[in-house]
Write a structure and sequence with these properties.
It is elongated, with a radius of gyration of 20 Å. The strands form two sheets. The protein has a six-stranded mixed sheet with strand order 1-2-5-6-7-8, with helices on both faces. A two-stranded antiparallel ribbon has the order 3-4. The protein starts with 13 loop residues before the first helix and ends with a helix. The protein is α/β, with parallel strands linked by helices. The longest helix is centred in the middle third of the chain and has 13 residues. The protein is 40% helix and 22% strand. It folds into two domains: 114 residues, 3-Layer(aba) Sandwich (Trna Endonuclease, Chain: A, domain 1); 98 residues, Winged helix-like DNA-binding domain superfamily/Winged helix DNA-binding domain (Arc Repressor Mutant, subunit A), CATH 1.10.10.10.
Amino acid sequence: MNKPAMFSRESEMTRIVDDWLNSQGFFTKLEFVFPWGICDVVACEVNRTHVLRRIRRGQKASIGSHSNVLLLSMIPYEGQPIGITISDLEDTLQWSRNELEQRIQFLRRRRFVDESPAGEFKSRVGWCPIHRRLMAIELKLKDISGALIQARSNQGVTRDSFVAFPESVANRIVNGKRKREFADSGVGVISVNDSSCEFLLNANGPLDRISATQELHAVEKFWTRAKQEQQ
């Protein structure tokens, strides 16, 4: 029987978790910055069909900042009968006219937005979303309460929010009283040994906590890798 893996630092689990996710087809980023803090690992499974659609539309650049993502989300999709004007956006977003014009021109140059002769804008993002799954994973040796707090925060961007613990700690959680805390919070548990990982408890965060624009902005961080894979 193999001995349980012993980790002295959370960083010692990083490579194992990263390699495991990569082997399952996920792109990963470490020390991922969210508005509420830094997440140890964020993993994205892209929808390659949607990535190709975006590339074929000539949209090879990133959408950019969260403000650009927010603005794009306010512009009706090209299949809808009515677009939106600068004045309408100004009233809704409460941004200055100058900022709106600059950001819209940025999105137009990158082919995400079209303008009609009447001055109405529509978005060209029929490929959205470009991902199938987005996961946020915190690595913890034994701080269960702290892990839950961080993982709940990460539910602001994905319902697939996990905490990865050393195998012995993870098994103790899912077989003990604290399993209910994770299950009730919708936070998943991952077990880490010296060579691989295993899902012990699925994540199932509340959908109403997710910010769609924060999710899209997080996924955009993986766009360059998704694009390069197809070229």
